[in-house]
Write a structure and sequence with these properties.
The chain has two domains: about 110 residues, 3-Layer(aba) Sandwich (Glutaredoxin); about 160 residues, no CATH class. Helix 6 crosses helix 10 and helix 7 crosses helix 8. The protein is globular. Helix content is about 65%, strand content about 10%. The protein is built from twelve helices and five strands.
Length: about 325
């Protein structure tokens, strides 16, 4: 008993030392994190103009000035189309590094993403050209992200699937090029088109599949607008909001439930972009479709090399209105 008692007495100081070491290490970690947080805050600056605040690292001041000018211009354009959009007060965070972009977007954006919108915070996050490998041109990217806020407001509380939000933002930003058509034609030929029901909550993390999802979503929104006899995205959204439920509105337009809507939409894509239809029209059109697919692949490769240079030219000149492809994330 005495031996056991001696052992217990000897153990106590050792355990106490472990606790003390753990406490010290914990304090050091907390202090380090706090110091890093203060350093990050000190490194970031803000500019504010007409209700728009842009947060950025000092090294990105020229880019930030260009961004705020673009946001003010595009905000006015969107406000003219979306009468329910609350775009008076906005925040834009420009991320200099991939890690900063992940933190500002809560880590929910794939590594190929160039921007995101956080509707409830009235905030968008943009990657600096230094942090984005192949971004869309800046104007298109800003338009897409601000369109997310406008679409969210215009729906007036009506819940819509992810593909509708992405397709609507892409349509507002006019993100359609030859390689989008090529991607749909190739997917229709391969049988790899995605059903809208699989894109209700999230988009693929893979860049190639996500690009296809954006293209399909764009076409789905355009199709619904055509069925409704609308010429603008905002007009379509007004009808959906008045119906009070997205599924009810789509069902009324197409006469289909969710499963049948998938089938109808995929059939439409095959008819508009599928190679089978082109084959029925003759070999010349088939050859043209093959050239279309090849041209799309070449264009994607060339654009991936060109976009960074375009962004940097926009930043240096403080202007630029060229359009680009999708590549953002919401």
């Amino acid at each position: 008993m005495e031996t056991n008692g001696v052992r217990e007495v000897r153990r106590a100081p050792a355990a106490l030392r472990i606790l003390l070491v753990a406490a010290v290490l914990g304090a050091l970690v907390v202090a380090s994190l706090a110091t890093a947080s203060v350093a990050r805050a000190a490194d970031r600056a803000t500019i504010e103009r007409s209700g728009v605040t842009v947060s950025f690292s000092e090294s990105e001041r020229r880019l930030a000035e260009h961004v705020i000018a673009l946001v003010l211009e595009i905000r006015d354009e969107l406000a003219a189309e979306f009468d329910r959009a609350r775009l008076e007060t906005l925040r834009v965070d420009v991320a200099t590094t991939a890690g900063e972009f992940a933190a500002l977007s809560y880590g929910g954006v794939p590594d190929w993403g160039a921007g995101c919108a956080i509707e409830r915070e009235r905030r968008i996050v943009l990657r600096s050209p230094r942090a984005a490998g192949a971004p869309a041109t800046l104007r298109t990217l800003v338009t897409h992200e601000l369109a997310h806020l406008a679409v969210y407001d215009q729906l007036g509380g009506v819940r819509a699937p992810r593909w509708f939000h992405e397709g609507a933002a892409s349509a507002v930003a006019v993100e359609w090029r030859l390689d989008e058509s090529a991607a749909l034609a190739l997917a229709a030929w391969r049988g790899s088109l995605m059903a809208p029901s699989g894109l209700e909550r999230r988009f693929p993390q893979n860049a190639r599949q996500a690009r296809l999802a954006y293209a399909e979503s764009y076409q789905a929104v355009v199709w619904l607008a055509e069925l409704r006899g609308e010429t603008t995205v905002s007009g379509l959204i007004d009808r959906i909001r008045d119906d009070g439920m997205f599924e009810r509105s789509v069902g009324g337009l197409t006469g289909a439930d969710a499963r049948s809507f998938d089938q109808l939409f995929l059939q439409r894509i095959r008819e508009r972009f599928g190679l089978a239809l082109l084959l029925r029209r003759g070999n010349l059109l088939f050859l043209g479709a093959a050239v279309l697919v090849l041209a799309g692949a070449v264009l994607r490769w060339r654009r991936s090399r060109r976009r960074l240079a375009e962004w940097e030219r926009e930043e240096r000149s403080g202007g630029g209105t060229s359009e680009g492809a999708s590549g953002s994330w919401r």
